[in-house]
Amino acid sequence: TARASGLGSWAIYHPEMAETDRYRKWIETELGQAIGKNEFELVYQPQVDTTNGETVGYEALLRWEHREKGAIPPAEFITVAEKCGLINQIGSWVLRQACVDARYFTSGEKIAVNVSPKQMEQDDFVDTLAAILRAQAVDPARIEIEITENVLIHDQRKIREQFEQIRALGCSIAIDDFGTGYSNLNYLSDLPFSKLKLDQSFVSRIEDRKNGGALVSTIVNLARALDVDVLAEGVETENQMVMLNAAGCTLMQGYYFGKPVALQRQQTLAA
Ligand code: C2E
Ligand code: MG
Ligand code: MG
Ligand code: MG
């Protein structure tokens, strides 16, 4: 029960719990055991080229099924993991599992893996990535590292160095949630990434906002100028797809094409 697991009197989940120190402490403690207790799983969501309907990649998304409390969304535990340092251990698990899973996508689709800025800041991040790729014998070209736009406010010299080394390994890099954070376009244009992921807030407002389409075309043009791809996130309706196409965006991901689903895998990593 919730009481037995240290949640005290919170037998029922309340959104405001996410805000409390106590809940954060609880998450921190439980997160430390989640890998060993086999509570993590990756689910995969298709990324579609709408010009031909082909699935060109899958984004790996982390799911935590707590043995008593049930599903806890990444929005609640990733920030905690970043604050307490567990993100490195969790992030390595994610990378390793995604590499194990890559072989089950038999058409050679790219696997996009979310990496926290905190994780990428670690001096040994690239070495860890390289070691995992080697151990799992995965072609680095199949792995795309997704990193949020917010990474750009971190140590810029360090981030550029990491980007270059990731690229040198043969992996590609996508800037996630683009358009929601602080971006120094000057600096962005010098970084070796190959995709902008247009944040879903642009997609959800493309129909009702007068300049919604124009905003998207502006970002599409920016991507062209930078010579990178642009993929729209959170596409839920056919009309959104049509409007995105009209704005020049052809790569998409969202419930309209498919929800994130678990693999029927034969192998899940132990601790
Ligand atoms: P994100 O990387 O931007 O992932 C997209 C989020 O949008 C996912 O939420 C996905 O399930 C959701 N989504 C996909 N299609 C639709 C749609 O059509 N409509 C709506 N409303 N939502 C859609 P999720 O899985 O809850 O993940 C939330 C965030 O948590 C991710 O945002 C990412 O920042 C972070 N995250 C997830 N897995 C990992 C991970 O393995 N490592 C790290 N560091 N962060 C992760
Ligand atoms: Mg992502
Ligand atoms: Mg995103
Ligand atoms: Mg996001």
TrEMBL record:
It comes from the Bacteria. The keyword Nucleotide-binding does not apply. Residues 24-271 form the EAL domain. Keywords: Membrane, Transmembrane, Transmembrane helix. This is Bifunctional diguanylate cyclase/phosphodiesterase. It comes from Oricola cellulosilytica. The chain holds residues 242 to 512 of 512 of the full protein.
